[in-house]
What does this fold into?
Amino acid sequence: MSGGAWTFRPDVAAALLYLRSRHVPLTLAAALGGAATVWALCLVFAEDRDATPLVVVMTVALMVAVFAPTLAGPDENLERTASVRWPWRRAAHLLAGLLVVLVVLLATRYTGARFGPAALVVRDAAGLLGLTALCAAVLGAGRSWFVPLGWTGVAALYPQPGTAGAIATWPGQPPGSTAAALTAAVLALGGLIVYSLAGPSRREATEHLA
It folds into this structure.
């Protein structure tokens, strides 16, 4: 503190600017508000204390969809500069998003409307975030939620039997499905690596300039 006024360290100021540029505060409010709304509806109207798997899976997918636009900033050229360690920052961004989803939903395990099992929440949150990151690298952050949300909707409503069916409809499979868990792990790791190294698609910046 200097002259009676608070001063920010450069790294703290940069972090705050980064979060604001990607509308992270607004995104957090939307994700928390949406999850709280679903939780409150379950608490009031559901007969069973445990939310149905369909509700759990779709809540995870909606939280991830809300998070998707934060995967790109307003200036694509700035995000390609070598002066910032973007791969590490992008990886931390994804992991922070995963942590938010997990903390919010798993915290309900101690309330009157529980979202679980934990294995289902962790699998789908990690896999869908990885898939969203992959889509951001190919399609751009603005469109990155289309495939994960659509895939989850179909998979949750029509889960298929067998190994091939479990892979194709992994978001809607029971938490004990090995094939679904491996599929989610591949998507999570692949999305983390590809997005961290490549960043969001350049076509999004081109469209903003058009």
